[in-house]
Design goal:
The protein is an alpha+beta fold. The protein contains two helices and four strands; from the N terminus they run βαββαβ.
């Protein structure tokens, strides 16, 4: 899960991921995770490396990246 301080940042992540064909979707942030805007990008753990590369390459504004075990 990737968290954001603003809704604008969350929507930028969604747009970038869709453009690159990366899996995931915006969901309400779980209570255990703090997200300024209350939203997070949820994606399969195996896509983490590609997501991190995208975040760095496009300089997306994120608060944190978390792995959650259900």
């Amino acid at each position: 899960m990737v968290t954001f301080a603003t809704t604008t940042s969350a929507l930028a992540m969604e747009q970038a991921c869709k453009a690159q064909g990366l899996p995931g979707r915006l969901i309400p942030a779980p209570r255990r995770i703090t997200a300024g805007c209350g939203m997070c990008w949820s994606a399969p753990v195996e896509s983490r490396e590609r997501l991190e590369e995208l975040i760095v390459r496009l300089q997306l504004d994120v608060d944190g990246i978390y792995r959650i075990l259900l």
